[in-house]
Design brief:
This protein is α/β, with parallel strands linked by helices. It is built from 8 helices and 5 strands; from the N terminus they run E-H-E-H-H-H-E-H-E-H-H-E-H. The longest helix has 24 residues. The model has no long low-confidence stretch (mean pLDDT about 90).
Length: about 190
């Protein structure tokens, strides 16, 4: 199964993707994690994106597509994947569609984890304190939510227009959300 996991920062995409990975037996492909690893390792890409990420802005479409194409060309995704963090805008939706067509891996579903904004802010503040992520600072969080609303929210409509969108309530225990998510994919 090939899935795009959508939702605002703090909606639980990473947590739920890890659980879906186990349930479905396909890799979790997190563009955010791939970028954070590049920054931590000090790779050329990591140096390019470090300041952009710290400001809560999005990495360029061209860089993201290159990163994703390399990852989705690996053999471990031949039976499917859970894509987390991409696409984040309409240009990326179109680029992803073209990439998946080239790779012969059509998308099965896009799942939106819906969480109220106040809860997103609370979750991200807790994550910043716990994990010390610079992209979860109060200023970066506010900017990330603004960017999400203006650029990423239209992605939801893109997948809805293709009848691929499934909406899942992202509030509740991890287990409750997981159950709703798996039910939405059946």
């Amino acid at each position: 199964m090939r899935i795009v996991l959508l939702g605002a920062p703090g909606s639980g995409k990473g947590t739920q993707a890890a659980r879906l990975k186990e349930a479905l037996g396909v890799p979790h492909v997190s563009t955010g994690e791939m970028l954070r690893q590049a920054v931590a390792a000090g790779t050329p890409l990591g140096r390019q994106v470090k300041d952009v990420m710290a400001r809560g802005e999005l990495v360029s479409d061209a860089l993201m597509l290159d990163l994703l194409e390399e990852r989705l060309s690996r053999p471990d995704v031949s039976n499917g994947f859970i894509l987390d963090g991409y696409p984040r805008n309409l240009v990326q939706c179109q680029a992803l569609a073209a990439l998946l067509e080239r790779l012969g891996q059509p998308l099965d579903a896009a799942v939106l984890l819906e969480v109220p904004v106040a809860m997103l802010i609370e979750r991200l503040a807790g994550r910043a304190a716990q994990e010390g992520r610079s992209d979860d600072s109060p200023e970066a969080v506010k900017q990330r939510l603004r960017v999400y609303e203006s650029q990423t929210a239209p992605v939801v409509e893109y997948f809805a227009a293709q009848s691929r969108l499934r909406r899942v309530d992202g509030v509740g225990t991890v287990e409750e959300v997981s159950e709703r998510l798996l039910a939405a994919l059946r």
